[in-house]
Each structure stands twice: as C-alpha cells, then as structure tokens.
Amino acid sequence: MPPIKIDPALHQARKPEWLKVRLPSNPVFFSTKALISDLKLHTVCESAQCPNRWECWSLGTATFMIAGDRCTRACGFCAVATAKPFPLDPDEPERVAEAAMRMKVRHAVITAVARDDLPDGGAEHFAQTIEALRRRKPDMVIEVLVPDFNGKEAALRTVLDAAPHVFNHNIETVERLTPLVRSRAKYRLSLDVLRRAGVMAPGITTKSGLMLGLGEKENEIFQAMDDLREHGVGVLTIGQYLRPSPKHLPVVEYIAPEVFDLYGEIARKKGFVHVSSGPLVRSSYHAGDFDPLKLKKPGA
Ligand code: SF4
C-alpha cells in the first residue's frame, strides 16, 4: 500500500479538546456503580481508569475484571496494580453472572488480570465465568479479553472449550515498541495465540486492539494490521493511549479523530469484518455493536 499523506497538524503533543469526557449525571451510572460494589466485583473500567466509564456505566454496561485486581505483570501503559495476587475467589463467576443479569447485559465482556502465578494463568476461572453467564442467560453474547497465558495450549483449550463467542487478545502496540510497552509479553506470541484460538475453535471470532500515540510509525501500524489479518483476526479496535500517571509511559502524540477515521477505513479495506477506531475507543468500548451471531460464515 502506498504511504498515506497525513497533515502533521493532525498530530498534536498536548492533550486536546476531543479527549475531554463528560462527568456523570445519569442515575444509571450510580446504580451500575452501586451494583458492582455490592457484589464485590472489579471492573477494568475502574482499575484501568478508562476515560469512558461515565458513558458506559450510564448505559448500564461495564467490563468485569475477574481473578482479582492485582496483576502479575507491570506493563508500562496500564493502570492496573502490580502486586502479589490473592487466591482466586471461587464464588466470583456466579457474582459476575448475577451482575450481568441485574444489568440486563446482552453482550458480556470479561477480562482478567494476568495470573502468571497460577499454572493455568486463570483459564479455568474464565471458563467457570463463561459457564455461569451461559447458565443464567443462554443467548447472551460472551466476549473474553484474555492475557496470553504464556502461550500454554492447555490454558487456551480450557477457555475455548467453554465456547465464548469472541476471543479478544490485544497486541496493544506495533512490533518494535512491544518490549517497551508490554511487560513480559511478546508480539509474535500474541499473534500466535490469536491464530491458534481461531484454529482450535473455528466458529469463534478473534479480536485484537491497538493503542496509538506511543511513537509508532504509520507503516508499522499498517504492518500490525496485516499481521493480525494474516493470523485470522476479524475484529479490530484502535484507540489513543492516555497516560494514567507520571509513572507510566509518556504519550508521544495525540492523534486527531480524522486520522483514526482514516485508519478505520484502511483496516476495513484490509478485511476486518468490524473495526472501531477513534481516540476514546477501547477494547470493550461499545463491544455490543459487533454481533458475532450475525456474522456471515464463509460460503453462507
Ligand atoms: S470502554 Fe470498556 S473498559 Fe472503558 S468504561 Fe467502557 S466497558 Fe469499561
């Protein structure tokens, strides 16, 4: 593909207007917050300081983060606390299912901290949560946003045997920046995990996400898109990296909404069946806009 000419004025160094978020005034926001707290659940919305939590919680959606709120990795972009995790809470899958029912969730997104301390990386806990959700509402669309499980086949098998509809694993950034951005994660391993998920569970949709603004070059972004397509990934999210605190990686540039639109268009042309691209897009942002049950299967 020839290089795309983007006006340099569309790349900015200071936090721009379009990243300002509205504070909540909607009663649904407060009921979502109370429900999550009553059921003693964690969400990545809070733990990762997601800028969309006012909007998503006001719409009665949230992304549940299972297996505790202490992560065994220390990625340079992520606000989730790094610490020795607590033992798994065996009742948590049922409480997640209870919350999803009370919130009338149609498309549930479940993620987890990386649990490198556990032999299966927390895969069985994912499976139990998927099963609890499905028991309560068999037609719920279930999306899991998983860590790389260090590439362990058995862990992948455990999650896939529970039959989520969407298997999401973020590559987060381009290959060159991966060692800087993602602690203990490897770009090629993540691609391989996505490819194997698609092979092991042929009916599943695989999904991944990129954060921009970390210093990646345009040709590297397009290469990452090509790599994902070559590994069978069907859904892509592209958003702006925001620095959670001065201890985290700095933002190299703020990219304008028009450029995100352009990247979205290019990604669609490369064959992704669904793309969300915008400054505030996150992995689970409006996840329900993509319905894997309506996906036309090859040859259909
Ligand atoms: S985008 Fe995802 S993580 Fe952020 S608030 Fe919405 S549901 Fe939560």
Ordered list of secondary-structure elements with their pairings:
Layout: E1 11-12, H1 27-38, E2 42-43, H2 44-47, H3 53-58, E3 63-66, E4 70-71, E5 81-82, H4 92-102, E6 107-112, H5 123-136, E7 141-145, H6 153-161, E8 166-168, H7 178-181, H8 187-200, E9 205-212, H9 218-230, E10 235-240, E11 254-255, H10 257-269, E12 274-277
Parallel strand pairs: 3-6, 4-5, 6-7, 7-8, 8-9, 9-10, 10-12
Antiparallel strand pairs: 1-11, 2-3
Helix pairs in contact: 4-5, 5-6
Written account of the structure:
The chain is of the alpha/beta class. The protein has a domain at 23-207 and 215-235: TIM Barrel (Alpha-Beta Barrel), CATH 3.20.20.70. Helices cover 33% and strands 15% of the residues. It has helices spanning 27-38, 44-47, 53-58, 92-102, 123-136, 153-161, 178-181, 187-200, 218-230, 257-269, and strands at residues 11-12, 42-43, 63-66, 70-71, 81-82, 107-112, 141-145, 166-168, 205-212, 235-240, 254-255, 274-277. It has an eight-stranded mixed beta sheet. It has a two-stranded antiparallel sheet with strand order 1-11. Strand 7 (141-145), helix 6 and strand 8 form a beta-alpha-beta unit. Helix 4 packs parallel to helix 5 (123-136) and helix 5 packs parallel to helix 6. It is globular and about 45 Å long. The structure holds iron/sulfur cluster (SF4). Iron/sulfur cluster is lined by residues 44-45, 50, 52-53, 56, 61-63, 282, 284-285.
